[in-house]
Amino acid sequence: MILSMTGYGKASAVYQNKKITAEIKSLNSKALDLSTRIASSYREKEMEIRSMISAALQRGKVEFALWIEYDETAVTATINGAMATGYYKQICEISEERDIPLPKDPWTLIMRMPDVMNSQERREELDAEEWAIAAKVIKEALDCLMDFRTQEGAALARKFSEKLNSIDTLLQSIGPWEKIRTEKIRQRLTDALSSIPEVEYDRGRLEQEMIFYIEKLDINEEKQRLANHLEYFRETMAGEPGQGKKLGFIAQEMGREINTTGSKSNQAEMQKIVVRMKDELEQIKEQVLNVL
To answer: 208-234, pLDDT tens digit by residue?
Structure first.
């Protein structure tokens, strides 16, 4: 079973006068690239949170956020009197210096100025009960993300199977053209020599050279290795999760065999088949980057 590195999860819980929410999303990356935004109340647990995430996700570009929303009784608003007075004095001074009339309602203006109103959350020490609930919220968010990764992984597996089957079918279709190619090569060489009647040659030696030349163009080994790689890719997909890098290596080996087959296929129809195999493989390589 393969898992995607793309995922999203979110979970919430209520504890006393606050709502605790955890949100996590991930994209593909060669390693675990984790960034966090954690409410100040839980900063002391950041290393523990990071350990939970890294153990569950292994790889991916991960963004995690944990925040608190207080109800209305948990937040008090205060007016910063010194700041408001300072703004008022500045308004009066500027009005006098520039001969500008004072605003009809300066306090409405002042109350909108930065830092005049302060919202203060009730700060409390993090107790074991609250942290247990927060940890449970984080785990639920991770579970949601893993469910998402599993669904995306199943979709990738179906896509890979489709492409592997297509490459397999194209590989089988090379056979008839390969036989025709061999006969054409033999006939072309014979006709070329027949067109030069004054040249004498050893027919036995000619037959040996033709066999040697045809063997150099033989692609049976490449076909067999490619078939083995296709099967190995399928077996790896069906195995344990976390095989994305291995699948990438197998895809590279498949590419080498297809390229070698193309370089030996000095026949138009065979080369067209090779091009189609390359196209299918390229789509596999693009998608395998998303596999955990």
So the answer is: 666 666 666 678 888 899 999 999 999
Q: What is the pLDDT of residues 250-275, one digit of tens each?
A: 999 999 999 988 888 777 888 899 99
Q: Write the CB contacts of 253 (distance below 8 Å, at least 6 apart in sequence).
A: 225, 229
The rounded distance, in Å, linking the Cα atoms of 127 and 105 is 47
Third-level CATH fold of 7-72+126-149: Ribosomal Protein S5; domain 2 (3.30.230)
pTM over 0.90: no
- Domain locations in the chain as residue ranges: 7-72+126-149, 81-115, 153-288
Could you give the CA distance from residue 18 to residue 41 in angstroms, rounded to a whole number? 12
CA distance 219 to 260: 8
**Any bridge partners for residue 15, and if so which?**
18
Extract the tokens encoding 31: 């390693």
Three-state DSSP at 121 gives strand
